[in-house]
Structures are given as C-alpha cells and as structure tokens.
Design a protein that fits this description.
Length: about 140
C-alpha cells in the first residue's frame, strides 16, 4: 500500500511518532486504519528512524553551541584579571546601582558559562537517548 506524502494516515502516524508515542502503539493504530501489519510496522519504523536522526542533529547543534559558549567564557575569564571580575561581582552583590560596560561583559560571560553547561548537557543527553527526547527539544 503506497501512501501519498500528504495522506491523513501518514500525517497522523508521523505526528504520533514525533510526539514520542511507543512504536508498537503507532503500528497498531496504523494497522487499525486498514494497512497490513507488516507494512504498518515498516512505515512506523522508518518514521521512528527519521525522528531519531532529527533529534541527533539538533542535539549535535546544542552540543556545539554549548561548547562554543563555554569556550568563550573560559577565554574571557582567563584573560580578565582575577581582581577585576571579583570586584564586579562584589559590587553586584553589595547593591551598586550604576553598572559599567565591564560589569555587563562579566555578567554576559557568566550567562554564557551557565548556558553553555546546560546546552552541553542537553546535547549530550539527546545524543545518548534520542528516543527519549521530547518534541520541545527538537523544535
């Protein structure tokens, strides 16, 4: 049974696989719509493999971006004298109202470090367990 690209059966199966429904449930649903079970299993398996490739692609991008942000913050903190960024943090926590451009660079580097760690973790986790990833991470 050959399906067109915009057929409701293919669209529904792709949506169920994308949202992370178990392969067996989607196969049963497709077979219940009138497709032979062996064809339904092959279709769902190909859709599932397509989803895993997409999750891994986005996970690699997250990992690369996280490594880039971490590298930026490491280089920033290595080049900035220790006393300068400790002074800026001390002034931040003591409530200084006026911030200079150096202070904003420091806060940006801290944000980059925290974001880089988070993106590295999410990218690594997506590469290790692509079938468990949620759709919100793919988009």
């Amino acid at each position: 049974m050959e399906l067109e690209e915009d057929s409701p059966l293919l669209t529904g199966a792709r949506a169920r696989v994308t949202w992370g429904d178990p392969v067996e449930d989607v196969t049963a649903w497709v077979a219940a719509q009138g497709m032979p079970h062996h064809e339904a299993a092959a279709l769902v398996r190909s859709l599932h493999n397509e989803r895993i490739r997409e999750v891994r692609f986005h996970s690699r991008r997250k990992l690369a971006l996280g490594i880039g942000l971490l590298s930026f913050s490491i280089i920033f903190f290595a080049l900035l004298p220790w006393e300068e960024w400790m002074r800026a943090l001390n002034q931040y926590f003591t409530g200084r109202t006026r911030k200079g451009p150096g202070d904003w660079l420091l806060y940006g580097a801290l944000w980059a470090a925290i974001s880089g760690v988070w993106l590295c973790w999410r990218g690594f986790w997506g590469l290790v367990t692509p079938a468990a990833e949620e759709l919100s991470d793919v988009e």
